[in-house]
Amino acid sequence: MTLLAHARYCDEILAQTDRLGALVEGADLTRRVPSCPGWNLRELVVHVGGAHRWAGEMVRGRAAEELPEDQVPGIEGPAGEDAAALVGWLTAGAAATVDALRAAGPDTEVWTWAWERRAAFWARRMAHETAVHRADAALATGTAYDVAPGLAADTITEWLQIVAFAQAQGDPEAAELRGGGRSLHLHATDVPGAEWLIEFGEDGFTWRHAHEKATVALRGPLTELMLAFNRRQKPDEGGLEVLGDRGLLDFWLERSSFG
Start and end of every Mycothiol-dependent maleylpyruvate isomerase metal-binding domain (predicted)? Predict the structure, then answer.
């Protein structure tokens, strides 16, 4: 499975935002979000919309360092509990961010917190940020969730890259993802080629696309696999199957949560 095009990520930011907005408009904004303990729907939307505006402002200004949130206009969202106003703020921010990303193009240099300093990083990150948090809103409202296979697969790939980066940077949780001779296989049964093999070494872990026997395998539909890997549902829900050492899968999930 390969990276999507910059234009596709931009399109997905808009599409995922529209679908998130549709879930929230007319809903009780005080409804709790079970997959994000401590948040209600309003707080979830403000988090997503604030992330859009923060990333968009850095791309627009070609930031050479991290931009403080208090320098991002409108990041706090509208006051009150008017769902329509909140959705309008959300979609306006996403549109402005996509305009900035499209104007910049994928290769424009800009600050990021990660392994690459290009606008392409923010297009991809915001697409996945929005898609995964749309799942949170769907769970909170009891609504069915689906996502395109290419985006779902790349969400898994990006998260593996983030966890690997965190381990390289010395994150204490990610640092524990080591130990030779063990492996974790993710296998989507409905999308050819959507497989990942995570191998634990003495100095850390590595991953690659492969179909090989592992210490533990998590297999099932790709969307459900993505949700479980992002800790939005349990590994034995949604038609998923755990084969082998369930403890190793739990070990991974617990140490790749970052709080």
Answer: 12-138
Instruction: Reduce the DSSP state of residue 144 to 3 states and report it.
Output: coil
Using 70 as the pLDDT threshold, list the residues of the chain that sit under it: 1-2, 259
Question: Which strands, in side-by-side order, build the sheet including 204-208?
Answer: 204-208, 195-201, 182-188, 216-220, 241-244
What angle (nearest 5°) sits at the alpha carbon of residue 154, between those of residues 74 and 20?
40
Contact between 13 and 98 (Cβ < 8 Å): yes
- Which three-class secondary structure state does DSSP give residue 217? strand
Q: CATH 3.30.1050.10: does it fit domain 150-255?
A: yes
Helix residue spans in the chain (DSSP H): 6-24, 41-60, 83-104, 119-141, 149-168, 172-175, 222-229, 246-255
Per-residue pLDDT of 86-140, as tens digits, reads: 999 999 999 999 999 999 999 999 999 999 999 999 999 999 999 999 999 999 9
Q: What are phi and psi of 173, to 5 degrees?
A: -70, -50
How far is it, in rounded angstroms, from Cα 147 to Cα 149? 6
Q: How far apart are CA 230 and CA 83, in angstroms?
A: 27
